[in-house]
Specification:
26% helix
Length: 487
């Protein structure tokens, strides 16, 4: 719901004059609707929201119900009451959707990352295209009614695809070491002995290391006491090289029983080719700290995408779905339609995956990323692949692009792949000022994409939006947008 209610949106000025009247009506409406937590009532689900929850209406108030599907009839129980909406959980379903299926994971309704596992896969793909349409309807960028929204590109087998497991580690009340994810809206850990969306090797390594931590009586971090050492385990696998990296995220540089632990990993988990430690002290909402240290094996693992190889250090970003990553980047390359001799900027570049795939056509590729290790990886990846016309720098796109332009570099094309927060306002201003003829936006958040298009469509026309399912069984949707400069 946060994506609907809590943002201060660009482009929202269109109905600013109407909002006081709307707010008054909603306030009067809320006064009339007396609802309490725990109250139950029947509800028909009209549609699904951007987070995969079912949405129905009780006395004209929106009710958000995780796990409910479009056209289902259910008895729901209110879990929280807000000014403009209610949250509820399913008490029982009276009429099932024909698209409802049995989830493979018994905990799918308890933790994030499985929001749609009860929805059949063709319906998931249709939902993700609809999420893009919902976002466009909300922000209404110029010409949005006529955008070409293409059917979502999915997987043949939408399971076992995640190349990275990042699990919190805690001791339960019985003193047993557990590793898993937090329950929704809490810090209650749900132990995950299995996980159908993970690449099997990531779970094999994860559960083996949990057993080692138990056997060695390792000091596990305690959130309440703010003591202990091991906080999080991260296992990342390279699908095309069989490399596996294990990272211990710890509360301090100390790692008791390190020698015994590394010996057991070497003997029992030969598939692990890199062991690292990341130090993230104290109470913080961030999983990763700034200090990463090498413990055993190589300092990085290697992955292949298409004809290129990529070095991955512990903190370097790579899409979680190797198979669909190639689909996504092929779509970005197709949308950019770069011609020989043109220059391109690879913004939010990560380890250079998109930009380096364009280097065989481009005269020059320049990219930027805020994580220094990722920039080192990107430049090393260029060298390892024999690419001499690509260069990456540490910094934000909104800082470096104006600097390059001031120095006389004006790109013919720009590809942006921003985080979920979308594009920085300064970067949008810079893009609109230099007006490259070609612009491709790779989005992982339809809401911020639609918001950014409000500004970008002042100078650019949306040719099409191609949604790509990078994370089956979740409500997440990626999209590639082809934009061309208006004459």
């Amino acid at each position: 719901m946060a994506n609907y209610e809590s943002k201060n949106h660009r482009g929202y000025h269109r109905d600013r004059n109407q909002r006081p009247h709307q707010d008054q009506r909603r306030a009067r409406q809320t006064e009339r609707v007396q609802v309490e937590v725990g109250q139950r009532f029947p509800l028909t689900i009209k549609r699904m929201g951007i987070n995969g929850e079912g949405i129905g209406y009780y006395k004209r108030m929106a009710v958000f119900v995780p796990g409910a599907l479009t056209n289902e009839e259910a008895v729901v129980e209110v879990t929280s009451v807000a000014t403009r909406y209610l949250r509820a959980k399913v008490h029982r379903i009276r009429k099932n959707s024909p698209h409802r299926v049995e989830p493979r994971d018994s905990y799918a309704d308890q933790v994030g990352g499985f929001e749609l596992e009860h929805l059949d896969y063709p319906a998931q793909l249709a939902f993700k295209r609809d999420v893009v349409a919902q976002a466009l309807e909300r922000y209404q960028p110029e010409g949005f009614h006529s955008y070409d929204l293409r059917p979502t590109l999915g997987m043949k087998d939408p399971y076992g695809y995640r190349n990275k497991a990042q699990f919190q580690v805690r001791r339960n009340a019985e003193g047993q070491v557990e590793a898993g994810l937090y329950a929704e809206r809490s810090h209650d850990l749900i132990d995950l002995p299995t996980c159908s969306v993970q690449m099997p090797v990531t779970m094999t390594v994860m559960r083996a290391v949990v057993a080692m931590l138990q056997d060695l009586d390792m000091p596990i971090y305690d959130e309440e006491q703010k003591s202990g050492i091991v906080k999080t385990l991260v296992v990342r696998a390279a699908a095309h090289t069989d490399d596996v990296q294990l990272v211990f995220i710890t509360n301090s540089p100390k790692l008791p029983h390190k020698r015994e632990l590394l010996e057991r990993i070497a003997n029992e988990l030969p598939q692990v080719t890199s062991v690292m430690q990341n130090i993230n002290p104290g109470e913080t909402s961030l999983v990763w700290g700034d200090d990463t240290r090498h413990l055993a094996g190589a300092e990085a693992i290697t992955e292949k995408l298409g004809d290129l190889t990529f070095k991955l250090s512990a903190r370097a970003f790579l899409q979680l779905n190797p198979a669909q990553t190639e689909v996504l980047y092929d779509e970005a390359k197709k949308a950019l339609d770069l011609q020989p001799g043109q220059t391109v900027v690879d913004a939010y570049a990560g380890i250079g995956t998109i930009g380096l795939s364009l280097a065989d056509v481009a005269a020059e590729v320049r990219g930027m990323e805020i994580i220094p290790e990722a920039v080192d990886d990107a430049n090393a990846n260029a060298a390892a692949n024999g690419i001499t016309n690509a260069h990456y720098e540490v910094g934000t796109a909104e800082d470096l692009l104006p600097k390059w332009v001031m120095a006389g570099f004006r790109p013919d094309a720009i590809v942006v792949d921003p985080p979920r927060t979308g594009l920085d306002a300064t970067l949008i201003e810079t893009i609109l000022a230099i007006r490259p003829s070609k612009l491709v936006y790779v989005s992982c958040n339809p809401s911020t994409l639609a918001k950014d298009l409000v500004d970008l469509t002042a100078d650019y026309r949306v040719e099409y939006i191609q949604s790509v399912d990078m994370m089956p069984q979740t409500a997440r949707c990626e999209a590639v947008v082809k934009l061309t400069r208006r004459q």
